Amino acid sequence: MILTAENYFSREASREYFSVSQFKSFLDCEAMALAEISGEYQREETTSLLVGSYVDAHFSRTLDLFRAQHPALYTQKGTLKSEFQQAEEIIARIERDHLASLLLEGDKQTILTGEIEGVPFKCKPDILLNSVQCSAIAAEFPDMSELMLSGGAIVDMKIMRDFQPLYRDGEGRLNFIDYWKYDLQLAYYQRLVAQNNGGEIFPCYILAATKEKVPDLGLFRLPQSQLDAAYEIYTERLPRAVAVKNGSEPPERCDECDYCKQTKVLTCGQYLGDWA
């Protein structure tokens, strides 16, 4: 199957290829991931997610199409709702920053396919910088000198609530990169980009902005050691996801996500002590 902008998110593409988001769904809840692939279940398109998608659409030059596909962005009077007016402020803040503007000069949303441990994967990195763009950035920003001799770089854009740590049971307070497994995402992007670019491993950055009243900006370089560790840790679980996806193993339910709550079947009583 040849992937295009029109079929990239299709059910057929989801069956044929893994993506990082699909793999992370299997890590979260196998039953939900299978239901999403089959079309039985679709996650709610929250306002929070739409704000991030709005900003992405602006920088990928598809905002007009995005607006047409999402009439809920507008009030009955035809004006943008306040949340998306804030998205416009985030966009303006990013565009006012010189380094951010240089990073955004790369190719956007390039569709790539390849294999992770023999498993077909697809990806659409937000921004791919070429060697000329990398050299120009390094010449102007000495702290990014690693880009001077690099054939390219991967930049992923994230729109966050803020940069405060997030809490997860059993792991405590985590930075947003660890909490959302963005290191896994970029580790896989890195390898898929290399397969399509002569084998060179590109450095990875996250360009982030916040949804605070006054938007904050951050540029985060992911160390190669962190990317390699994330690749090793999570790829150990890829064969299980493949087995569940192809039907050779039954899916496990997490019993915590919305899909599991929606499809839960009562079998017996529970004691209040079960939640203690």
- Extended strand count: 9
- H/E element string? HHHHHHHEEEEHEEEHHEEHHH
Low-confidence stretches: none
Count up the helices: 13
Approximately what portion of the residues adopt beta-strand conformation?
Answer: 15-25%
Report the average pLDDT across residues: 93
Kindly describe this structure.
- The chain is 43% helix and 16% strand.
- It is an alpha+beta fold and 276 residues long.
- Strands 1-4-5-8-9 form a five-stranded mixed beta sheet. A two-stranded antiparallel sheet has the order 2-3.
- The longest helix is centred in the N-terminal third of the chain and has 15 residues, at 82-96.
- The N and C termini lie far apart (49 Å).
- The mean pLDDT is 93.
Strand-helix topology:
Layout: H1 11-16, H2 20-28, H3 30-38, H4 47-59, H5 63-69, H6 82-96, H7 98-103, E1 107-108, E2 112-116, E3 119-123, E4 127-130, H8 131-140, E5 152-160, E6 166-168, E7 172-174, H9 176-179, H10 182-195, E8 204-210, E9 217-221, H11 224-235, H12 238-245, H13 258-263
Parallel strand pairs: 5-8
Antiparallel strand pairs: 1-4, 2-3, 4-5, 6-7, 8-9
